[in-house]
Every structure is written in C-alpha cells, then in structure tokens.
Amino acid sequence: MEPYSDAWLALAVPYVARVAEALDARRWWDDPFDPRDATILLAGGLALVWDEESGWRHGVFVSGRKGMRTELAGVRYLGGGVLPEPERVAELIPGSREERPVYRSYRDFGDGLDRELVRYVGGLVGSR
Prior knowledge:
Blueprint: H1 6-9, H2 13-22, E1 27-32, E2 36-41, E3 46-51, E4 55-65, E5 68-77, H3 89-92, H4 113-118
Antiparallel strand pairs: 1-2, 2-3, 3-4, 4-5
C-alpha cells in the first residue's frame, strides 16, 4: 500500500473502531497525518489517544477534533506495544506510566505495522 494514499491514511480506522467497540465508546475520530493517530472519548471527561509511534495514552480531554491534534492533561502511556489487542487496551490503563515509549517512527514504512493494521480491515468499523 502506498504511503500517504487515502487507503494508507485510513488504515488504522478499523483498529481504533475495534478498540472503541471493546470500550463501549460511542465517540471517536481519526487524525491521519504524521503520525497517524486517533482519539476515543470516554466517560467522565477522559480520553484515549492512539498514535503509530507510541501506541495508547490516556488523560483528561482538554481539546481536539478531527483534523486537530487532541490535547490531554495528565497524560499517561499504556505500554503494551503500538497495537495491543483491542480487548486488552482497558486492562493496560491501571499500569500506565508517564514515560512516553517510542516503538517506531511514523517514517518507518515497511516495518510491518501496516501489515498488522490490515488484520482489522473488513471487521466492524462501527459509528463515529
């Protein structure tokens, strides 16, 4: 898949949709550009943000929307790699930490991330 094509930019959407579904979250959006990332709004003013370099982080939602980076207060990183299984994301929250892990760079085309994301294509995308 060609980097920066429409299909490539949207490649993480099915994965994030699966995580949102596993968390029973109804509101989420992607912001697919350098790095590709996405936000899931949770109850109580909290949010989860995924990006292709550091995986998931959570904190208090300050601002954000599609096309604008999400800002969180009190950010903590979940660990567990860039693509923990969707059902496992909630389990990682209690062990989160302040240090930002860097698993890869958004410039690392061909490192296998896109191949892993393709596993979620064709699954339930859900509503945004």
